[in-house]
Each structure stands twice: as structure tokens, then as C-alpha cells.
Amino acid sequence: MLLLILKRVLTAFATVLAVIVLSGILIHLVPGDPVTAMMAQSVTATPEVMAAMRARLGLDLPVWQQVALYTGHVLQGDLGMTIRGNEPVARLLLQRLPNTFALAVSGLGVALALGIPLGFLAAIKRGRLADTIVMVIAVLGVSVPAFWLGLILIQLFALKLGWLPVAGSGWRNILLPALTLGLTYCALVARMTRSALIEVLSEDYIRTARARGLKEHRVLLVHALRPALISIVTVVGLVFAYLLGGQVIIENVFSWNGIGRLAVQAMLERDYPMIQGFIVVFATSVVVVSMLIDILYGFLDPRMRQR
Amino acid sequence: MTVLSQTVPRRPRVSPTVLLGLGLATIIVLASLLAPMLAPFDPLRMAAGPRLAAPSLAHLFGTDEFGRDLFSRVLAGGRLSLGIGISAVVSGLLVGGVVGLAAAFGGRLTEAVLLRVIDVLYSFPDTLIALALVAFLGPGIENATLAIAISLVPFYARVTYGLAAAERSKPYIEAARLAGIRSGRLVRVHVMPNIGQSLVVMATLGFSSAILSAAGLSFLGLGVQPPSPEWGAILASGRNYITKAPWILIFPGLAICLTVLSFNLIGDSLRDLADPRRKARS
């Protein structure tokens, strides 16, 4: 088990390091000169100011040196300063990170609370009407753009019925964005739960349990659901990563003060240090969460420990 | 007679879902292709009708904040969205396919290195990869298409690798290798025809994801720029009139949903046909 943890931690570290290097290289994708692109809307962009900016970002150095410097700084927790407000990128991102996580965890909670029972129902009623309905919901769920669903929910619950606030950050404000994310990703959870449960239900020990005369609800809840849930744990990591990805847009729809909203603002203003910082922080979150899920899976399923 | 009828192999039944998907996709593709003929107004023409007019016979989907005809804009948006989707999928599939094949047939070291890189990239949501790239490349239709194409590469590389690696261990490949056929020719002549069909199926699923990414990027103002009538861009401008003119929100959104739904239905059904074991579980 210790070996599994060590292996996963090392892999995660290597991945994060690769992302940092990549994010250092990405600024060179900017067509033409990044400083000219950044200062395009600025009235104070004299040649001297632009040269100073180039020096501040280290853009006058050779590419490999820039990337090495950037990686070194990031590893020490320094993500640079924003172009617009000249504020530390790391501080701004860390201030907003709890909001992003609160929304992601709530969204995931809704997705699991809806998806697992739906998948369970579809599996035990396989081939019947309930199954068809759940599968239709699942296909619709992956076909509806989350930001559109968000706008529809705003229109319905906030503007028409007036039950919930349109935007902002607070516990009442989290309900609509969390519901949007949950509804979007519950389709994925329902599908995975259904497949996992169908596979478990075909195992010999389920037949044995039934043959022993156990009540059907006991067979389903105790003997089938528990092992199925273990395989659902692996899916949770995947769903969480995709949910975080989709959340960037949702934070903007609901004006939720998370790092996704900050990032899109930076993207529109071409604040490259902020964008680089966002990529590093976001990718690290995805990597750490999937690492923790892998380790948790190791604890739950003894077979994983031997690998 | 009964015994006979049981032994005759039955043709696979075409499922109603694939028919629904094909029907929807045909209508959407035709409507987009024929948009210039079908659209009653120029999609960019301001004051084609009153501002924020509700759907009527003159303006089937109503008008937007500049009095532009929404029906014409949604039709023209279809051309843009489908164009971005097709270009991104074709380029993503080409690059991803080559990377996947190289990993499967390029020797142990190449396989180990490429697979690690693909797996790392694959663990990040494609929306995020597209967003990060567009942030540096800058907004615009070409850059958005390029970013979405690159974001699809890990998915296609992983799928191609999986299919090619499964073929690699089959006897006909070993026989071809023993006959002295080199890797390049082996892949071109023997492997490609065998995995091509499955790749087309996966391309369909990638297409849905490309359409969603394109709409998302344009909605954020990072993809197709106004006044171009891309569906996501129309939604972005329509969100300010959510109470006054909900139709600006409803019709482009439905267009995205139906397009993505049709390709998901086709992709899912084709995948089940190609892999009956999967069908048994799903």
C-alpha cells in the first residue's frame, strides 16, 4: 500500500512539473510579441514601458532560460505579478480557490445524489421503461451545454419564480450553479453506476445470495451495491476533473467568484502571468484530486494494492 | 422450421435511436448547407425587423437586440459550428491517429514515452486544454478551431492506440511481420483498414464534444467573435435580454442540444454495433 501511495505521489509530482514547464512554454505561442498583445489597449504603452515589461517577464532571455526561471519561481510558490493590477497572482488565485472548491464539491454532491440512485434504478429495471427513461436522461445530460442549462435555470428559478438569487457568492447563491453542474454531470454518474451494477449483478456470488433465499433488497443493497460503489469511486475522480473543466464557464454564467471567473477575465484582458498561474493551479487541483481518489481506491479494493 | 430460423444469422436490427440520430443530423446538416437559400434575411442585417420582436410568421425565431432575424442567424450559425466541428475533428483525428499508431508500432521506448504523455494530457478536461490554448493564441474562429483540434488529440491518440494495440497481437500481424513487412506498410495496408471503422465511430463522438467546446469558447468571448452568428456567441449576447426576449436564449441553445444529441445518438449506437460486449453491459 505504501508503494502504491509513493508511486502515485511521484507520478502526480512529475505531472505537475510537466504542466509548469508547459505553461512556461505556452506564452511563446502568442502570435507576435506577447507584450505588444498585452499592452494593445493601454495608452501608457511607450517603448520604454514595454521594454521594462519585457524585462520584468524575462522575455528578453533565451526561451530555455525563461522556462527554467519560471519553473523555479513556481516551485517556490511565486506565480508572478498580474499585468493589470500588479498584484501577486498566487494570492489572487488562492483567495478564490475555496469558492471554486465549494462549488465543485456541491456540484459533485448533486451529481452523485442524483446519478447513483438513477443508475441503480436503471440497472435493476434493466430493459424496462424506467431503464429507458434513465438512459434518455443520460444521453440528454451529455448533450445539453451546461452554460445553457444554467441560463435556463436562472430564467426559471431566479427571474420567473424569484426563489433564488441570480448571481454572487454566498450559500444561497451556490444552489443554482451547483444544481446546473450536478444536473449536467449526473448523467455520467448514472451511466457508470448502471454499468458497474449490471456487471456485479451477473457475478456468481449474487446468484448464490439469491439461492440462499436472501431478500432481494438485501441482495441489492448489501451484496451488489457495495462492490459497485467501489468501482464508482474511480469514476468520481474523472467526473470531478470534468466538472472542474465545465465549471470555468459556469462560474462566469453565475458571476461566481472562483478562479474560473478570474481566469476568463485574465484571458479577455490578455494578462498572461495570471493565465499561466491559473493553468498551474487548476492542473494541480485536478492532479491532486485524482491522486487522492486513486489512493482511496487502493484502500477500498485490496486487489489494487498488489499492482 | 423453428430450428432452421434460429440458425440463420439475423441481420443486426437498426435501432430506433440511431435512426432518430441520423434523421436529426441529416436535417441539421442540410439546413446548414442550404442556409443561404433557406434564410429569409441576411444574418448580419440590422433592423431586418423590430428590435427584440417575439417569434412570428415574419420572423420564425423572433429578432435580437439589433433587430436581426434570429432564424437566419441560427441557420448561418449551423454552418459555422459544423465547420469548426468538422475541421477540428479531422485535424485532431489525423494527429491523434498518427500519435496513437506511433505508440503502438514505434517500439518499446516510443510506446512508453508517448503513452505517458497521452495519459497525462487525457487526464485534463478537453475544455480546459482548449481554453488554455485559446488564451495564448488569441480569440477568433481559426484559433478556436485549432485549440479544439489540439484538445481532441489526446482522446483520439488514446483510442487509436487502444485499437492498434489490440490488432498488434493478432496472428495476421505476426504473419505479416514474419513476411518481412515494415512497420509503416504494416500500419497502412493491414492495420488501418481494420481499425478505420471504429475510428470513424469515435470521430462522431469527438464531433459532439467539439461543437460543445466551440459554443462554450464563443459564449465566453474567446471563440468566434460578434457579429458572427455562432450559436455560443448568439447566446452570449442574448443573456442580457433573458427576461425581455427569452427566444434569443432558447433557439440557439436548442440548436446546440439537437446537434450534439444527434451525433451522440449515432456515435453511441455505432459503438454498440462495433463492440457487442459493450452493448451487453449497456
Automatic annotation (TrEMBL), chain A:
Residues 97-297 form the ABC transmembrane type-1 domain. Its main location: membrane. It is a multi-pass membrane protein. InterPro entries: BPD_transp_1_N (IPR045621), MetI-like (IPR000515), MetI-like_sf (IPR035906). SUPFAM superfamilies: MetI-like. One of its GO terms (biological process) is transmembrane transport. The keyword Aminoacyl-tRNA synthetase does not apply. Keywords: Cell membrane, Membrane, Transmembrane, Transmembrane helix, Transport. It is found in: Cell membrane. GO terms for cellular component: plasma membrane. The chain crosses the membrane at residues 9-30, 101-121, 133-158, 170-190, 220-244, 277-300. Belongs to the binding-protein-dependent transport system permease family. This is Glutathione ABC transporter permease GsiC. The lineage of its organism: Bacteria, Pseudomonadati, Pseudomonadota, Alphaproteobacteria, Hyphomicrobiales.
From TrEMBL, chain B:
It is found in: Cell membrane. Its main location: membrane. One of its GO terms (cellular component) is plasma membrane. One of its GO terms (biological process) is transmembrane transport. The chain crosses the membrane at residues 18-39, 80-105, 117-138, 144-164, 199-225, 245-267. It is a multi-pass membrane protein. InterPro entries: BP-dependent_transpt_permease, MetI-like, MetI-like_sf. Residues 78-267 form the ABC transmembrane type-1 domain. Keywords: Cell membrane, Membrane, Transmembrane, Transmembrane helix, Transport. Belongs to the binding-protein-dependent transport system permease family. PANTHER family: OLIGOPEPTIDE TRANSPORT SYSTEM PERMEASE PROTEIN APPC, PEPTIDE ABC TRANSPORTER PERMEASE PROTEIN. This is Diguanylate cyclase. The lineage of its organism: Bacteria, Pseudomonadati, Pseudomonadota, Alphaproteobacteria, Hyphomicrobiales.
